[in-house]
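Exam prep: given the inputs below (a chain plus (2R)-2,3-dihydroxypropanoic acid), describe the expected output before reading on.
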Amino acid sequence: MTEALLQKAAHILQVNDLGNYTVPTHGLYPFQWNWDSCLTALGQSHLNEDRAWTEIETLFDHQWDDGMVPHIVFHKEDDGYFPGPGVWATNRPVPTSGITQPAVAGFAIKSLYDRSKDKAKAAERARALLPKVFKWHEWFYANRDPKGSGLVAIIHPWESGRDNSVDWDDAFSRVPTEGVAPFVRRDTQHADPAHRPTQAQYERYIWLVQTFRNLNWDNSKLHDASPFQIVDPGFNGILLRAVSEVAALASELGETKIAQASLAQLDRGIDALEGLWNDKLGQYTCYDRVADRLVDSPSIGGLLAAFAPIPSHRAAAIADTLNKQSQNCNFLVASHDPLDPNFDAKRYWRGPVWLIVNYMIANGLHVAGQTDIATRIDNDSLRLIETSGFAEYYDPITGEPCGGDQFTWTAAMVIEILNMSKAAA
Ligand code: DGY
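Solution:
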């Protein structure tokens, strides 16, 4: 069974591999996406180490001069996706989008290095990527935390990866739609519109893109100009885990300055994260910087923070919350609490399970010693694949597949989870 799953997963990676980068799935997402690639590299590393490094190196070849790593690299033309390079107009040699995505890269390169068989070669590639990843982290703290709070804000829902989370609803209602140029969505031609964000949300996504474009994508201006500034514990949790892995890798490779600066970022971030803890919900929650208030919303962002080196009593409380959730859904982890009235089992990030988030939560909880619940999450992930194949995401109640199929990061996570549990056994 395991062998057959591994083979199917490897086949999907191969089908979506365009040589030096991998598309998330043909049709719906025909370019290179930032966090997709870094998570994909984890799966690739078990099949072909060299290819895994290349995936991340290709992404960093398109890092901006200011340090940002864009969320999409438009390596070639494809009319099947909206908004394409013409809408972003970022004026790059190879077109890219103008916003970023969760900073998984630091975690990914440390994992690739740790598990590499040819350590000398891996050290060479890690050493070349390390300053670039560190520069991206510095970019985050300089541009998305201008007041030095220790936590960074996203300025577009697409940056979080959780495009249409309930967490954004209030803040997003402040984003206007006047002046949005007419457009034709492509996503709903590839996937069931009932599984995707709504038209009203799309108009706001595009309003933000147009506004940032009018500011020439000058990152020193975008944060303050955005009516949408959200401090997401999941996004910060990923960044902080990456920062801690960069600190460890840098110290192993003798890059003392990067190690020390990363440890300082980590300490400040972990302290500041404490301000997002919500005892009633048993998880972290978002903070709306423009409205200056915490967002009382039980979504997966506050559980995903368990990927970071948070205090052990917080990891234990998140484990309790997940245990409670397991009584209300068949497959952990729902992207929104199934008991909340806003839960929507099939619509993108308003309820469905995503294997990449499962993997990151379980990974953090394994590290924190919360083995039972972490193993339960891993097993639920594999049960979903056996029930419904390699989908983009799944209904947490019925396990039905949603969104795109033959999905790269889902396949990569299966390879990763199976190999990790083999290694732990
Ligand atoms: C999309 O187009 O659905 C993406 O999530 C934006 O990156």
